[in-house]
Amino acid sequence: MTENPNILLIEDELQIAFLVRDYLHTVGIRVVLATDGLQALQIFTQQKFDLVLLDIELTHVKGTMLCQQIRHISTVPIIMICAHNDEKTRLECLSLEANDFVGKPFSPRTLIAKIQAMLQYRYGQWQTLHQQKAALHSPKPIILDETRYEIHFSSVVVPLTKIEFRLFKTLSEKPGWIYSRNQLMSAMYGDFRVVSERTIDSHIKKLRKKLQKLPSEYCQKDAIESRYGTGYRYRGEHLIIVKSA
Questions:
Q1: What is the CATH number of domain 6-137?
Q2: Residues 6+ apart with CB under 8 A from 91
Q3: Residue 129: its pLDDT value, please?
Q4: Per residue in 157-197, pLDDT tens?
Q5: Nearest Cα to 190, choosing from 166, 161, 164?
Q6: Most buried of the four, 11, 120, 137, 229, by CB within 10 Å?
């Protein structure tokens, strides 16, 4: 295996696919994306992959059938993405000779930990080399102080309002995940008050301006991205640590 592993991601829910792909890129893993079973099987037979991440429910060719076809021609590690996280699903995945599974909804960090453990078990040396490089180049964490509604990064402290803090915390809990304005309203206002979409946009604008006070190594300009017609997503790559009372 090369120093940077190559993974085939087979997922037809694009929001999940892009989220997983972006997270894997941050830890030095290359990703080839296939959005249906037929395309995936064709790609798999044309390239060499170190691991396959496969959604069990796909269009055209079901994930269960695709897993069997891949296993028939290869011993590559396979991690299944499942709609349920129960014993029945686990037994089904194991019966297909998949190596592991993760149930939706899942934490991207948990998925990465599973992938890294699988790669280390199979290829050992890569994980050690990559961990050494990651230790040298890993970004500093961002601390969210829930008692003071502050963002701490490096030696800089950025005070927020209670609403801005809730907004940033919600977005940063699932980097890459697109939140609609209604979802953000629910997270920001616990009393179910009626507010306009322009109110959300106004808070986003103020939050972006405050994030610009952070050091240049932080992704200031693009940390909160607007998605036309859908909502907003957080694109920061730094680990978020929440400090509570």
A1: 3.40.50.2300
A2: none
A3: 47
A4: 999 999 999 999 988 888 778 899 888 888 887 666 667 77
A5: 166
A6: 11
pLDDT of residue 122: 74
At residue 102, the pLDDT reads 84
Instruction: Assign 134 a pLDDT band (cuts: 50, 70, 90).
Output: low
Q: What is the CATH number of domain 142-243?
A: 1.10.10.10
